[in-house]
User: Fold these one by one.
Assistant:
Number 1:
Amino acid sequence: MTGIGHNGGPGIPTSGWQRYAWRRARAELLPTLPIEIVRRRVRRARELGIDYKSYASIRAATGRDVIALLFSSNALKVGPKVVAIPETEATRLTALTRTTRLAATHLPLAPTRLLAANPGLLDRADTAPTLAQGWSETREVLHRMTGAEGLPSDAVVVVGETMLEQEWAIAGRMAGYLDAHRYFAST
């Protein structure tokens, strides 16, 4: 018996020759990238400081290259008392090439104070969305951040530490989310 949405065709085989044939046919449908393109994407992932597997999955999901990283103040380990970005994080920010470096600062840290204390490390900083804002307000705040730089939101990856920051990627329709510990720990 079939339910709503069933096309009436046979089910997917679970064992034997049919399963092998099904998997092989599916694999042949998936595109195989030329080695030059793979090498270029590996280099680009390195430029962004992202492991290739994460970079490739972001590219596959969005269909475009990552052109900016949005760091939360938590990810940068800064706050109202400690405004200077620690050496490990600063070194990673300096190493980024062909990438816009954005920061979203949690209150009470002012974006201008973060930029003044860390000249040349960030291209732009704005106040982060708050817990009191809903999804549409959060989206508007994030789009103002990316739009001010002329960036499409689905080409920006959020690097953060908390669940709230992870939700920014969803609410803002961003390219993806990377955990700050993993991002700054990888080489």
Note: The mean pLDDT is 89.
Number 2:
Amino acid sequence: MPPDPRTDAPVSLLRRLHEAYAILPGRERLVADTILNAPAEMAVWSASELAGLAGTSNATVSRLVQRLGYRSFEDARQDARRLRETGSPLFMKGSAPMAASHGEVLRAEAGIIEATLAQLDAEVMQQAARALAEARQVRLLGFRNSRFLADYLTAQLAQLRADVAPLALEGQTLAEGIAGIGQGDVVVLIGLRRRPARFGQLVRLLAERGAKLLLVADKGLREAPAYATWTLTCAVETDLPLDSYVGVMTVLRLLASDTAEALGDAALHHLNEVETLRDTLSELEQAR
């Protein structure tokens, strides 16, 4: 599978289809339309099934996949399976509607929390919490959907101790944030699937700075955990469209609670100071 020369990453099935679409012959375009209308099904269709749905022949399907740069239909199907495994919403739950009933969501979310807590190592949590309590400074980072999770944990830890902040401030480059990291620091990096390119390189760079690294990720992350001090693996995938983050939120809440316990009276003193300053500044709405 030829890589994209700009990123060295494999060119995805969808991108190949969109880039070739304008020059496709009519019958091959029917096959392309069938895939683009239900991309998740490409992971399970046989060549004959795809040809039948498109109203064409197996030979037409074969010509299209070869035009797209694949050696065979199976190579194209494996590409679709990889996209499903990375969590692309277009490749989740086949052609089922994006909407779900309240009962389905409740069962799915409860299952995610149970699956996440079942694989949680309490000792790892306690070690990470002690490190967060004792660190010179704590820096947190997440990208895309992981960003709001990193922001949530930042806000919780900042109520318990000083020197807690995002690794990269708004408008700041990653290099500027990484340059301030060193021995005695803890970096919390949240990297759930559909991570940005070169995520693993970022993990290695942070590890090389001498800081302790807490990685919060899903089971699909492969090489990066080898460079982390601790890794907390969270379930995110259900039978419903789109990933769920309730398991991650549960873990982060527990982590904040364990950090408060590790800090002891210091957390209470810091929180008292924060609350006093809030009152002085009249920052929060008063209860009536």
Note: Residues 134 and 263 are 8 Å apart (CA to CA).
Number 3:
Amino acid sequence: MLRGMYGAAAGMIAQQQRQEMLTNNLANANTPGFKADQASLRAFPNMLIKAMGTTSMPNGQAPTIGELTTGVYLQERMPNFRQGDLMETSNNTDIALLQGVMPQTESGRPGALFYTVENQNGDLRFSRNGNFTIDGAGFLTTSEGHYVLGTNGDRIQVGNEEFRVNEAGFITNDAGAQVAQLNVVYAEDPMLLVKEGNGLLRFEGEGNLPIAVGNEAISYQLQQGFLERSNVDASQTMTEMMNAYRAFETNQRILQAYDQSMEKAVNEIGRIG
């Protein structure tokens, strides 16, 4: 009976974690470049149950009764790096990254492209949020103030918002001078990127992500005056949230039934005799 309570409690915890993930997805449904998380539920290893203290089997071993499940858990959260829809804003500082042809990977999962940015500690990070702005010194930054980097690894100083970006990422200032080219990198396995918040991703693999600029096997376009929407499907997310809530309630009722059975066992069965 106690094992059943543990299994029901494990199911409640897993569904609560899934609900929190879905709530975060829904909260970022309007965040440019946001990639929705997906949950993977997995069962704990089953236990083999045998009848102890008996020699009914010909070989003298305890007979096998069957298997006992020990509940489920949320194994991992995996971002979905599918391209989001483009939204026109007509703002010069909004630049959408539109993926084209991508190389075939060994895993079968498509790779993904990202901007390179510099966080507050000077570390290299990656992002799909093209909602940029200009700081007081004229540098191109993310909306959170992280510097956007060019192909040479330097910060990009555009001066003011009157700059132009072509499809290849070359930036021309208001005087007509070419100042930099936006750096775009390619992640063959995007699952090696970890979300840090504020639209930033950290690479957990070895070395650095290769530059996609000039790679003939990769095609992409940069669209100034556009933003990539979040790829969260709000209606599907709401449906999944309802399913997670119902699953949580089901496990809760099972746990309450076990609790009532334990109460009856303690208060009533003990009085017999």
Note: The chain has two helices and 19 strands.
Number 4:
Amino acid sequence: MPPKRDLSAPLKKVTFKCLSCRSTFDGEPSRVEPAPELEHHPFEYFNVCPSCGLESGQAPHEKALLKAWANSTGPRTAEGKSAVTRNLEGHPTKEEALRTRFNAMKHGMSAQTAQYFPARPGKYPACSTCDVDHYYCSSQPACVKQTQLFMVHHAAFEQRDPKMLQPIYANMQAAVMALIQQILQTIITDGVKLEAPAWAIDKDGDVVIGEYNDWDTGEKKIIMEVKAHPLLKPLQEFLSRNNMSLSDMGMTPKVIEQEEQAMGRLKGASGDMQILSLEDYAAKQAESMAALRVLADRANARKQTDPVLIEYKQQNGGEAT
């Protein structure tokens, strides 16, 4: 086990975080101040930010790591260290290696799919709702969210375990349903038809609006073109691809009629629906009972010739039930 770091002396290299321009950089501290209130590491570090020129302090995450390292516990005696070594023998197993082999993959440099999404904070549509820090994302070679998506799909297909993708596709299906609801609300608000003036371009390149004179009133009226709402087609595609049409849900007259006709029918061996009268159904029940009686007779015959049962009868001087 490696020895713990000596945190009683100042560090030679520190990670700094600029509170003004939010940039992160590494370097040797230009100023070190004593901080007796920090018992685990009584020093504070400062350096000039190369981006904005203002003085910056040590990054908060590095401060937390130093405190965690100083307060970390573990085996101190030889017996405890040997026990830890024995516990690690045989690990990781083959199954553990399959589960943990992607743990160290953070940036996606070896992921061909993730490389198509370089880190460009604020440039992708999902960046507006992304919870990853933009300054951290800009320092990565690939988009963090796209890399995570790649890792999950890669592991699911390699292990042939579609359950790993259920949360992703559940969110996707929920988003599709939300889109369908928005399309419906838009169509209801705008109406199923849209009217626009008919127009054309004349030989001089001017736009001409189609007009006509009303015979009854003599007023000049504009010719209106009536078109179906453009969102009706994508709505129909969404419903059909998600098995939400009326026929899929059994709500059309034809499907209801077929279900009513199927009532009282039995499926044959081929899966076809067969109409049986009460006499036919009673005959089939009689055949089934006859076959069951034959099976019961065979079972009784086997019981009478069972050697274990015969020996049991001889030992107890009676019949076994």
Note: Confidence is low (pLDDT under 50) at residues 106-113.
